[in-house]
Amino acid sequence: LQRELEAQHDIFHSASVPDFKNNTKYAVITDNLREAGFGELSWFKAGLDGTIGLPDINILQAMEREHESTENFRSGNYGIETNPRLEWLFVRRPEVGKVYPGEKEGGGG
Fold first, then answer.
1. Which of 48, 52, 75, 82 has the most CB atoms around it within 10 Å of its CB?
2. CA within 13 Å, CB half, 42
3. Cβ atoms 109, 103 nearer than 8 A
């Protein structure tokens, strides 16, 4: 048993590790990358409740308030120009016949 464990150990540790640096499958190719920050240790210790407060008990109303902005942005994945309000209306109260950003004429994606 000891020899078999040692052999498995040797096989495991001699296995080649994939080179992820040259793998572009999950790469983000953009000039808009930002460096992540982690904040202060006190933020971590306070947790989400202590940092941004408790969630609203009226979830649907809170989500709608979060989507009130009509300030446009361009999505990073498809380059579609939209805004939070349009996205909310598309999901919650879509208008029949209206073409939303990212849709083809006549509806559908």
1. 82
2. 0
3. yes
CA–chain centroid gap for 100, Å, is 21
Task: Summarize pLDDT for 30-39 with one digit per residue, the tens.
Answer: 666 667 777 7
Given a contact cutoff of 8 angstroms between Cβ atoms, the answer to whether 85 and 70 are in contact is yes
Using pLDDT thresholds of 50, 70 and 90, give the confidence band for residue 64.
very high
Beta carbons of 99 and 107 less than 8 angstroms apart: yes
pTM: 0.52
Q: Measured between alpha carbons, how far is 14 from 19 in angstroms, rounded to an integer?
A: 15
Per residue, the 3-state secondary structure of the chain, as one string, reads CHHHHHHHHHHHHHCCCCCHHHCCCCCCCCCCCCCCCCCCHHHHHHHHHHHHCCCCCCHHHHHHHHCCCCCCEECCCCCCEECHHHHHHHHHCCCCCCCCCCCCCCCCC
